[in-house]
Amino acid sequence: MKIAIVCYPTFGGSGVVATELGIELSHRGHEVHFITYKQPVRLELLNPNVHFHEVNVPEYPLFHYQPYELALSSKLVDMVKLYKIELLHVHYAIPHAYAGYMAKQMLKDEGIHIPMVTTLHGTDITLVGNHPFYKTAVTFSINKSDFVTSVSQSLKDDTLKLFNIKKEINVIPNFIELDKHRNETLISCQRSVMAKPEEKIVTHISNFRRVKRIPDVIKIFFKIQEQIPAKLMMVGDGPEKVKAEILCEELGISDKVIFFGNSNEIDKILSYTDLFLLPSETESFGLAALEAMAWSVPVISSNSGGLPEVNFDGQSGYLSNVGNIDEMAQNALKILENDKTLSEFKERALSVAQQFDIKNILPMYEDLYEQALTIKL
Ligand code: GMT
Fold this sequence. Notes:
Helix content: 40-55%
Oligomer: single chain
Bound molecules: ligand GMT
């Protein structure tokens, strides 16, 4: 099958999911065309089934806002015609479903019918898409998609609650490539760079936006390090990072916290991590938690959104109400203080992650694509 994938190519979870999906589809013989404004971070281009087409948005002084949707829909039309692409898969509704619909209409005018699958990821529904300034167009473009998927049941429920959706929403959870984790060689990374042998390693990875509740991460860690020797790895970058550094200084724990910024060495960091913290305000899925679990890392998270669908309470970690820092710290210590308990949690975290192995999830997308190709447009 010839598939075009549209996504945000940056460090966000939706771009990671779209890229990993495209790569795996290419390994299974599909021809995959990434149509994005930059090369996706995890994309491997030395693969004959993977193509990358850059969406350029030329600047012009008249434009206060650059017309990205226009450039994207134009590029989609041109690439569909040039490569005889059979299906569009757009990730993140805003504005990709809208641009995809425009491309479909332009192609229809030329007698080319192409189905579009839209995957909803989270903030395109819960934070941004729901804004009154976007809602009309987001509702329209979801309803105009031929197939709609959401990454969790919780996101599906939110979508149906917040928008007037007439389409069936198929839940296809995010996934992880477990083989990659097993085969990874870690020789170049030394645990000693991060912590002393007696110190437990606690990690948080995100885009440091308010929704991640970064101050909670620091405060939970503060309570952990009061009881046991520990270090905190803060991986990622975003608006809350400077405030987080200041909070560490105020709490007198700067020497116990390493801020990595955006890192390409996430796997190495996770391979030495003992506990992952994700106390988010909301999280449609929590891909970062799953990535940690794939490295046998238990997770302390909030119980909001789709997190209970990924992090199983008492098995792969613990869940608490948003903002309940005391309980999260107590649960963290319950896991970390005893080596036997820690190793049991590590084992179970991996076994929960195995349920989300790409091998189990990818056929769900392939089935949907097959159905999409057979519908009358
Ligand atoms: O909001 C973000 O953190 C980024 C966003 C994205 O689109 O990159 O993440 C959302 O999609 C991820 C991949 O499906 C999910 O794992 C995240 O839970 C979700 N974020 C939120 O719902 C806050």
